[in-house]
Amino acid sequence: MQFSAKAFFIATFAAAFATVAMASPAPQQGANCREVFFPDQCAANEVLCDGAGSIEICCTSCF
After folding, report:
1. Number of alpha helices (DSSP H) and beta strands (DSSP E) in the chain
2. Which of 5, 9, 27, 55 has its CA 20 to 30 A from that of 20?
């Protein structure tokens, strides 16, 4: 019984880590980019080029 609980927690941790790794956007999607975390938003002179979850990539221009 103890082995199955340990295996369950390891599998859950691995699944959560894989989800976060896949959800992270690429660091550069345009010119003069920066990462913005929820609840912040892009500035008035920036455009939203990419994002995933609570992370947005704000740039002055997108590629």
Report:
1. 1, 5
2. 5
**Residue 54 DSSP one-character state:** T
What span, in angstroms and rounded, lies between the C-alpha atoms of 62 and 38? Answer: 20
pTM (predicted TM-score)? 0.52
Q: What are residue 58's DSSP bridge partners?
A: 34, 48
Tell me the residue length of the chain: 63
Would you state the torsion angle of the CA atoms of residues 28, 43, 60, 56, taken in this order, to the nearest 10 degrees?
20
- Sign (positive or negative) of CA dihedral 30, 34, 39, 45: negative
